[in-house]
Each structure stands twice: as C-alpha cells, then as structure tokens.
Amino acid sequence: MNALDAIDRLILAELQSDGRLTNQELADRVGLSPSPCLRRVRRLEDAGVISGYRAVVSPKAVDLEITAFVRLRLASHEGSTVDAVEERLRAIPWIVEAHLLAGDWDYLVRVVTPGFDEYERLLREHLRAIPSLSSIDTTFAFGVTKPLSPLPIHRDVAVRAP
Prior knowledge:
The protein is an alpha+beta fold. 36% of the residues lie in helices and 19% in strands. The longest helix has 13 residues, at 34-46. The radius of gyration is 20 Å and the shape is elongated.
C-alpha cells in the first residue's frame, strides 16, 4: 500500500476513537462523501492497515479482577523451542497479550484472572509446565493509569510537557 495521506490518517483516527461509526458519520467527520470514504476504508482493510474491529470490555465488569504482567526467560532459543513456547502462550486463554522482547527477558505477557487463586493455578498448571522456561517473574497491577489508547497516527502529534 502507498503511504497514508492525511485523509487516511483522519479515517484511522476516527475509527480508533469509535469503530461503530456509520460510513455516513465517518464521511462527515473526514470531509468526504460516503462512496469515496467507504472505498478508502475498504482499501485500508484490504491492505491490513485496519486489522479488525472489536468491543473494549471492562475486565472488572466480567469479574476479571487481577491483571498481572509476567516476564518469561527461555533456557533455549532454538527455533523449535521458540515456536513451541509461542504456541503454548497463544493457547492459554488467561493470557491476553504476549510480546517478544529484546534484553534480559524473552517475553512479556499480560494475564487477566478472576483472582489470585486462579493466577496461582495458571502459574502452576500452565506456565511452569512449559519445559523450556528458565525464569518467571510476575508484577501485579493495582490500577490503570492510562487504558489502551488509540495509536498516535497523526504526524502532528507531539509530546508536550504538562
């Protein structure tokens, strides 16, 4: 896909803020008529720039009270080992994000569970059962300072001191 122009970036910003906008509402917000707006959205979807749409659900509203960030270190970095670890991480429903890292740790995973008992069960039955892990380090989050936010895709976004 060619570089994103200013209208594409506006479309992305609006959809990140409200993915339920109708095409007419989106077109009005970005200054296009509905047909060209829809064509641009479809082009962004087809190119993989827009990878999906989903609802953001409050973990506490669905009784997921515990959020933990877990750092994992591998004993081996062979290709088959890494593939097996990543397959296991993707299969654990309590793991809602997993990131491959550079540095002292190999993975950072975000885990949500209803309580500490369930987290302990996850640790004992799933994470410690991954044979190639050499270290597991957990940090529990007590609150959210900044929730998942839209990507800063505007070129004019600057970091400003408070």
